[in-house]
Amino acid sequence: MRIYRSPYPPVDIPSTLLTDFVLERAHARGHRPALIDAATGRAIAYAQLPGLVDRASASLARMGIGKGDVCAIFSPNTPEYAIAVLAIARLGAVATTASPMCTRDDVVKQLRDSGARLLFTAPVLAATALDVAATTPVDVVSFGAMAGARAFDDLLAPAGSPPPASIDPADLVALPYSSGTTGLPKGVMLSHRNLVANILQLDASGHLRDGADTLVAFLPFFHIYGLVVIMLDGLRSGATIVVMPRFDLQDYVDAVERYRATVLHVVPPVVLALAKSPLVEGRDFSSVRKLFSGAAPLGADLTRQCCARVRCSLQQGYGMTEASPVTHVTQDDAAHVVPGSVGVPIPNTECRVVDPVSGADVAPGEDGEIWIRGPQVMRGYFNRPAETRATVDADGWLHTGDIGHADAGGHFFIVDRLKELIKYKGLQIAPAELEAVLLSHPAVADAAVVPRPDEEAGETPHAFVVLKGAATPDELMAFVAERVASYKKIRRLDVIDAIPKSPSGKILRRVLRELPARASV
After folding, report:
1. Which residue among 330, 459, 474, 503 is buried most deeply as judged by most CB within 10 Å?
2. How crowded is residue 355: how many other Cβ atoms within 10 Å of its Cβ?
3. Which superfamily is assigned to 422-513 in CATH?
4. How confident is the model at residue 505 (pLDDT cuts 50, 70, 90)?
5. Residue 517 backbone phi and psi in degrees, to 5
């Protein structure tokens, strides 16, 4: 067995709870802004934050929320999002986060699967949220005035402290949904210890500087990258987090200049925009000391172009929701970064590269499936024991489904995926979900969906269908678009005679990926 270990010294992981850990030094940071609403300039100081969290958690307790209860958050980014997450955790309850781009059916499925009792939302999502509440037994709390919902400000109004709760660091605190290595979305069970460990691991590898950084948070807090790497680690580190509800390049660059941002958390499509968009020309990035990119692999050429234009270094991270999420980062010193690599294992993390057929460890430089073991690895999938066993083995190794290799120096490279997920701008799309929608169309006899490389988005869904009736590619793509979140819609569709499959009936997606695209929008 060949095990790759972190070059960083191990970190001690305290037996503490997430809210206590994140807010441990908040009072000492005084009037330093913790959260700023980019649209209005409204700020919440660090000295205010613990009291707001206590008030919110006390009000939630009066509403009957307690240990083990699941609270869903279906909202764009807002400063109150962070208060809600920490207040839920304070009670020993569990936050499950949903994309604001989700359809009504998406949200209903997640709420029913997780057993959520409460839904936090925003006025911009009122129609969907209230429709969900009409069919799901949840109370609704809104980050802003909204008819039919209780205002989050009402939870902050009365003074109070949360009741004592017997919470163990191993208890569940977050339940983000991920498609994992394959299939439909599943709840990823993350404990207080998982998230505390990952924050400490990340900081030990040079992520943020204590009390010195300013971040612009456009990456969504519902996503594990935004939730842990930006929001929770940012607050623990004393960063000022400028919160944007959505990404707009002009607004983003304006915020970077106005607030003198020091670390830019990005994803490959934003790196592309920073490297090539005319909107970036002549803008002031002198405050920025580095970019941090995650959610999808980033090419060496694009990295060089972006760094040359913005005039700073780029640190890349790798991981997955099932690992809280970070497992690898490139070194903070650009001189020691290997181009194209996602970096080395972070502290307390072990890795293997395993032949997916034989199960044997491969030599340095040879491709195999990346396996991970460490304190950040999830407890498992919620109510999915079989899927858990297929992803985390008896020895604690998380089988990532990603194909890559390590060089002789222990730097890792991701080259492909065993898993069938499509990564669109860092968001996960399960082909099985889109295939099910296509197969519900009366003209479709069979269907398969594969990723198609895209310079801006990373990957887009490309469908292949076998017809049994009359339908055009445009009609079928519109049919799917009406039934899924906007980011999941099919961008290309080809009609073919048969879907290639193995003798066992498994779709041969590699064969489809090698076919040229013919129809597109």
Report:
1. 330
2. 13
3. ANL, C-terminal domain (3.30.300.30)
4. low
5. -75, 140
More confident site: 519 or 419: 419
How do 422-424 and 380-381 pair as beta strands? Answer: unpaired
Tell me the C-alpha to C-alpha distance, in Å, between residue 197 and each of 67, 294, 373, 505: 21, 19, 13, 41
What stretch of H or E contains 309? Answer: helix 300-310
Q: What is the dihedral of CA 291, 295, 296, 299, to 10 degrees?
A: 10
Using one digit for the tens of pLDDT, what is the confidence trace for 91-128? 999 999 999 999 999 999 999 999 999 999 999 999 99
Q: Alpha helices of 174-224 — where are they, by DSSP H?
A: 192-204, 224
Alpha carbon distance 498, 224 (integer Å): 38
How far is residue 397's CA from residue 391's CA, in Å, rounded to a whole number?
8
* Phi–psi pair at 104, nearest 5 degrees: -55, -45
Question: Residue for token digits 């958390």?
Answer: 265
CA 325 to chain centre: 8
pLDDT digits (tens, 9 = 90+) for 239-270: 999 999 999 999 999 999 999 999 999 988 88
Neighbours of 75 (CB within 10 A): 30
| In 321-435, beta strands by DSSP E | 326-329, 344-345, 350-354, 368-373, 380-381, 398-406, 412-417, 422-424, 427-429
Q: Which two tokens stand for residue 177?
A: 């949904």
User: What string of H, E and C letters represents the secondary structure of 274-306?
Assistant: HHHCHHHCCCCCCCCCEEEECCCCCCHHHHHHH
C-alpha 450 chain-centroid distance: 21
pLDDT digits (tens, 9 = 90+) for 53-78: 999 999 999 999 999 999 999 999 99
* Max CA distance (Å), the chain: 68
SS3 29: helix
For the beta sheet containing 240-243, the strands, ordered from the edge strand earlier in sequence to the opposite edge, are 43-45, 33-37, 240-243, 214-217, 263-266, 290-293, 313-319, 326-329, 344-345
* Cβ(341)–Cβ(413) below 8 Å: yes
Q: How far apart are CA 463 and CA 512, in angstroms?
A: 9
C-alpha to C-alpha distance for 224 and 84, rounded to whole angstroms? 16
State if pTM tops 0.85: yes
Q: Tell me how crowded residue 487 is: count the other CB atoms within 10 A of its CB.
A: 17
Residues 6+ apart with CB under 8 A from 467: 443, 444, 445, 495
**489 vs 58: CA distance, rounded Å:** 41
Measured distance CA(423)–CA(318) in Å, rounded: 14
Answer for the pair 259, 274: CB distance below 8 angstroms, yes or no: no
Tell me the torsion sign for CA atoms 432, 97, 243, 345: negative
| Residue 176 token pair | 């983000």
